[in-house]
């Protein structure tokens, strides 16, 4: 690499150093332009190969996490009923109610005010105003009125406990486990199952159509009012079918009581009662969650089939509930004519009253407190419906807050999870809906429920966005492996040339300085 | 004509027998649920080569119900009609639905016409839908496909727009309730020849029956034996008739007792064929019958003794004859003499279809139709091919005995593969009317080019090739244009006039396997590596040229 002295160039060839393209300046320009292009291209490359991660409104989500809806409830004591003692009575009631709501985890967000009104016995003014009047016996009445008997009205403690169980019914963890998750749409699938069709006990048809159409008034009394009142919360679609061969997957326990062979289902049997491999209990035409109601007719060999308690003794119950799944009624035919093949709407009354109770339990309808009757035409009083609305609303709000928080946490944790515009839009919309739910909780629980369910579905939609999984399983190492043959072999001469040029330049500088 | 009568004996005799049983009052079970009727039927037909065709038909009639208007939303209470299928039909407002899942190639020459004409290899689905309502026809078709795929565990979801066409004349709407005649109807038809039917399809199929496979004729449907058959298939047919919606579930199987007995005897019984007998009748069926088609040759013994019927059909009623194990034996035969000389074909037409050509880009589709009758036969010919192959219409050629006969082909209509909004090509559809002269073979040939597919469009097992759906021969009105077609009902006669005739039912040709240019699937990586190396080489040399320092080296002598 030594530069030959120009004086020795007497071979007739042109001196390479003198060529215009062979000067050190040109070479450095060429090398510099290569590096300039690479440096300029780098941001583009970085941008094009990076994963799209739009910032989520995590601050708003965290702020939302601490918000709780407030449901104002205004209880008005009828001034004429309670006479002069009303204000003091009201204060005592308020204290009791405030204590109970503070003590219960579910109803902490209930803001109960007790007042005295001249016209409490008349029409109530708003959706959150409840009135208490004196009457002959304790009962609830439309619209949002509680009639209290004289003896119940004597002590504030007694009335307070009745009111707190109406406004803030205690939901035990066992009851809460039974309640199906809230959705806007439910399908109710009614199935008549014959364990063995080749038997004289075959029930081949039931009058469910007539019952639904409202041709039998007593039946309507049970099932239909619940469904029609709950239309405020859910949309129901109903389907029914009959199956003729529905074998059990296990052998029921056999035991002898007073020379009679009986068959029984132990509590363990009840948990595996549904033979989902052989029974097709609902159609799969939509994705709405299904609540199943099964009327099971055991084969003659198994009749009568009893439900046993924990000690192995037969109980008088013949219906049981599977949490969040549905209800089952076992129809023993021993009392009836053995060759009856059709169940009329009258035969179905006990069955459907059991189904109605099961439906209420599955959807979280709080029962009326002991000693309180209903004077309303429907089975479901305004008090119960309002309590259910408030329960579902706070459940939904809590659910959507947690889902949104999970999204934020997940996106923070996994760094190559893409977050696109739709996820952000959903999160934004869910937050807006949550805000609306909080705002409307003050006015109308029904509107608050609408907004909260909207928020919940938007939050789940964002959480389950398929785009967020797209690049999780395609790590960047694969790309590097494929492109190493290009990048490695291109970068080596570039770096070496740069290094050599820098070295040459520094040596020149040293020569110039020393010379 | 005599041979044809034998071939159609089955279908001609079914009608009077059924109508007479409907009137007889000596049935033990008078089962009826208001508005719903269920009946089952088994036809067993021994063949000349020792095989036995058994056809199970389970019919549910939902009386007084018309297919749902696309606008209408009420839910009925169902007893006998399967809810899972009923809800699908309601959800997508299906007027008529035909689904068949078959395995094997139906041998028309030796087996004659099948009871259920849908014998195309693989999956075939076609549906008629009334237009209107909030969902478009194509949305409903997609929904129907996916719902049926879920219900029957079959890959019907892949019957997408690349395979869907609307051949109105070959698959006519069988009947419409009279108040709905004014509504426009649309047809969607798709086939998936590579679909294979197996136990996972039969299990959900049996769940649609009111008695499952526990009692009644369905007791015989033992998967191990049904799927061991030479040919087996499941069919779901929903039609709306004047009396209501009719669901017909059918299982057809061509079983071979000769093979099971080690090539010795052709005796059969339920026990031999299915390894099961019928213990009890299905209690909810209005009637269940088992019928045996007996041939004219003597020497057989039928057990139990012939109860009713005539010399061509032996009929058993399950209501009075359970437990039942029908057996048919030839006691005087030491070993079954297999017909060595090929017997005369049972169907009027023999079909051959092949794809010739050794190259991966071009080929010739050729179809040979042999008329076994003494009169000319006119048929419609339908070819629905996915865009994998392109037909060249100018090369269409019809030959009889080596001479071109363009007069035998008429009413040609061709729909080229259309590019759809989703970027895929739809299938091409060729429909012609052919007249096959008496006792001769018509050869139709047409040039095709094979598509060059994108790397990602190949299936997992790309080297196997692509299945092409079968062509369909369908009956036509002899004088009129192809559009007017005889009613596709289960029982109807031959449409014949003045020496010209057509076929009574659809016939399917065998499927084809097309060999497309298949890439080496490790190719992308090889290409990346190779192009990287090339680029590096070029880059390196140019870079060196540009930045190298040239010096003159004096060589010391």
TrEMBL record, chain A:
Q: In which pathway does it act?
A: Glycolipid biosynthesis; glycosylphosphatidylinositol-anchor biosynthesis
Keywords of the record: Endoplasmic reticulum, Glycoprotein, GPI-anchor biosynthesis, Membrane, Transmembrane, Transmembrane helix
Membrane topology designation: Multi-pass membrane protein
* Principal subcellular localization: endoplasmic reticulum
| Gene Ontology CC entries for this record | GPI-anchor transamidase complex
Q: Transmembrane helix: present as a keyword of the record?
A: yes
| Membrane-crossing segments per the record | 29-48, 480-499
Q: Does the keyword Transmembrane apply?
A: yes
The lineage's top-level taxon is Eukaryota
Question: One biological process GO term for this chain?
Answer: attachment of GPI anchor to protein
Q: Any idea where this protein resides? A: Endoplasmic reticulum membrane
**By its UniProt entry, which Pfam families does this protein fall under?**
PIG-S
Per the record, the similarity remark reads: Belongs to the PIGS family.
Q: Note the PANTHER family from the entry.
A: GPI TRANSAMIDASE COMPONENT PIG-S
Name this polypeptide is given: GPI transamidase component PIG-S
UniProt source species? Paxillus involutus ATCC 200175
Organism lineage string: Eukaryota, Fungi, Dikarya, Basidiomycota, Agaricomycotina
From TrEMBL, chain B:
Keywords from the UniProt entry: Membrane, Signal, Transmembrane, Transmembrane helix
Q: Does the keyword Transmembrane apply?
A: yes
Extent of the signal sequence: 1-19
Question: Which spans are transmembrane here?
Answer: 525-546
Q: Know the name of this protein?
A: GPI transamidase component PIG-T
Instruction: Give Gene Ontology CC terms.
Output: GPI-anchor transamidase complex
> Which InterPro entries does this entry report, sorted A to Z?
PIG-T
Matching Pfam families: Gpi16 (PF04113)
Q: Name one GO biological process term.
A: attachment of GPI anchor to protein
């Amino acid at each position: 690499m030594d530069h030959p002295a120009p004086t020795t160039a007497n071979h007739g060839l042109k001196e390479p150093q003198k060529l215009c393209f062979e000067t050190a300046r040109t070479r450095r320009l060429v090398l510099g332009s290569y590096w300039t292009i690479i440096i300029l291209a780098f941001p583009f490359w970085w941008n094009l190969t990076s994963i799209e991660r739009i910032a989520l409104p995590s601050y708003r989500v965290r702020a939302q996490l601490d918000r709780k809806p407030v449901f104002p409830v205004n209880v008005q004591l009828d001034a004429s009923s309670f006479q002069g003692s009303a204000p003091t009575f009201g204060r005592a009631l308020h204290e009791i109610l405030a204590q109970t709501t503070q003590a219960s985890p579910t109803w902490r967000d209930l803001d109960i005010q007790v007042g005295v009104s001249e016209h409490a016995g008349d029409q109530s003014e708003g959706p959150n105003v409840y009135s208490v009047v004196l009457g002959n016996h304790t009962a609830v009445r439309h619209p949002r009125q509680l009639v209290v008997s004289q003896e119940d009205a004597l002590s504030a403690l007694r009335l307070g406990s009745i009111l707190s169980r109406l406004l803030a019914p205690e939901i035990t963890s066992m009851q809460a486990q039974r309640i199906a998750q809230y959705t806007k749409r439910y399908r109710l699938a009614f199935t008549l199952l014959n364990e063995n069709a080749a038997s004289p006990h075959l029930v081949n048809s039931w009058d469910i159509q007539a019952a639904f159409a409202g041709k039998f008034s007593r039946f309507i009394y049970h099932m239909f009012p619940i469904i029609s009142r709950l239309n405020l919360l859910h949309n129901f679609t109903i389907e029914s079918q009959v199956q003729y061969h529905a074998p059990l997957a296990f052998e029921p326990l056999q035991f002898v009581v007073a020379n009679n062979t009986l068959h029984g289902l132990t509590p363990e049997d009840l948990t595996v009662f549904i033979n989902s491999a052989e029974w097709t209990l609902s159609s799969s035409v939509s994705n709405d969650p299904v609540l199943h109601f099964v009327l099971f007719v055991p084969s003659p060999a198994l009749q009568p089939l009893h439900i046993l308690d924990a000690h192995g003794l037969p109980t008088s119950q013949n219906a049981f509930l599977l949490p969040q799944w549905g209800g089952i009624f076992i129809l023993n035919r021993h009392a009836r004519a053995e060759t009856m093949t059709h169940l009329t709407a009258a035969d179905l009354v006990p069955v459907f009253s059991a189904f109605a109770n099961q439906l209420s339990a599955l959807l979280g309808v709080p029962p009326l407190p002991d000693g309180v009757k209903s004077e309303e035409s429907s089975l479901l009083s305004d008090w119960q419906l309002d309590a259910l609305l408030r329960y579902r609303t706070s459940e939904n709000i809590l659910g959507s807050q947690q889902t949104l928080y999970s999204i934020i946490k997940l996106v923070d944790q996994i760094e190559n999870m893409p977050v696109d515009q739709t996820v952000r839009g959903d999160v934004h919309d869910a937050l807006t809906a949550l805000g609306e739910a909080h705002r409307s909780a003050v006015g109308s629980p029904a509107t608050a429920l609408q907004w909260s369910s909207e928020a919940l579905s938007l939050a789940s939609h964002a959480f389950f966005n398929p785009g967020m999984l797209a690049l999780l399983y395609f790590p960047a190492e694969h790309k590097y492996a494929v492109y190493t043959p290009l990048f490695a072999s291109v970068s080596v001469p570039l770096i070496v040339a740069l290094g050599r040029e820098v070295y040459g330049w520094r040596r020149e500088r040293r020569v110039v300085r020393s010379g | 004509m005599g041979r044809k009568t034998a071939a159609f004996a089955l279908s001609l005799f079914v009608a009077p027998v059924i109508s007479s049983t409907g009137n007889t009052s000596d049935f033990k079970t008078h089962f009826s649920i208001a508005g719903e009727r269920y009946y089952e039927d088994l036809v067993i037909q021994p063949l000349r080569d020792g095989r036995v065709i058994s056809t199970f038909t389970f019919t549910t009639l939902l009386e007084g119900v018309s297919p749902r208007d696309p606008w209408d939303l009420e839910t009925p209470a169902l007893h006998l009609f399967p809810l899972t299928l009923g809800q699908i039909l309601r959800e997508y407002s299906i007027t008529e639905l035909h689904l068949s899942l078959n395995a094997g190639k139906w041998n028309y020459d030796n087996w004659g016409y099948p009871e259920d004409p849908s014998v195309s290899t693989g999956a075939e689905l076609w549906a008629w839908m009334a237009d209107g309502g909030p969902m478009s026809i194509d949305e409903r078709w997609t929904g129907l496909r996916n719902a049926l795929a879920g219900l029957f565990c079959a890959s019907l979801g892949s019957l997408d727009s690349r395979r869907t066409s609307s051949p109105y004349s070959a698959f006519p709407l069988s009947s419409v309730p009279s108040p709905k005649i004014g509504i426009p109807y649309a047809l969607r038809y798709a086939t998936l020849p590579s679909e294979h039917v197996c136990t996972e399809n039969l299990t959900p199929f049996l769940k649609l029956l009111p008695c499952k496979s526990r009692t009644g004729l369905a007791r015989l449907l033992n998967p191990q034996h049904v799927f061991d058959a030479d040919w087996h298939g499941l069919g779901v047919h929903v039609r709306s008739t004047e009396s209501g919606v009719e669901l017909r579930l059918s299982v057809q199987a061509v079983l071979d007792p000769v093979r099971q007995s080690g090539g010795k005897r052709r005796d059969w019984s339920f026990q031999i064929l299915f390894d099961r007998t019928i213990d009890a009748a299905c209690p909810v069926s209005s009637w269940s019958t088992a019928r045996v088609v007996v041939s004219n040759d003597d020497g057989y013994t039928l057990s139990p003794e012939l109860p009713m019927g005539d010399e061509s059909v032996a009929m058993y009623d399950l209501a009075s004859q359970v437990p039942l194990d029908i057996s048919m034996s030839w006691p005087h035969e030491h070993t079954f003499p297999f017909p060595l000389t090929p017997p005369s074909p049972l169907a009027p037409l023999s079909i051959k279809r092949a794809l010739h050509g050794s190259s991966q880009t071009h080929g010739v589709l050729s179809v040979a139709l042999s008329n076994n009758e003494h009169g000319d036969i006119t048929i419609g010919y339908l070819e629905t091919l996915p865009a994998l192959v392109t037909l060249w219409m100018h090369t269409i050629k019809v030959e009889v005995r080596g001479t071109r006969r363009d007069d035998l082909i008429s009413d040609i209509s061709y729909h080229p593969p259309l590019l759809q909004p989703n970027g895929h090509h739809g299938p091409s559809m060729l429909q012609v009317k052919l007249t096959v002269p008496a006792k001769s073979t018509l050869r139709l040939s047409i040039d095709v080019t094979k598509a060059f597919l994108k790397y990602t469009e190949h299936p997992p097992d790309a080297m196997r090739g692509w299945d092409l759906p079968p062509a369909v021969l369908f009956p036509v009105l002899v004088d009129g244009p192809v559009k007017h077609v005889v009613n596709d009902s289960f029982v109807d006669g031959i449409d014949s006039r003045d020496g010209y005739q057509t076929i009574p039912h659809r016939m399917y040709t065998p499927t084809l396997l097309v060999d497309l240019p298949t890439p080496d699937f490790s190719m992308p990586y090889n290409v990346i590596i190779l192009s990287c190396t090339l680029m590096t080489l070029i880059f390196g040399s140019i870079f060196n040229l540009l930045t190298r320092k040239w010096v003159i080296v004096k060589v010391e002598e």
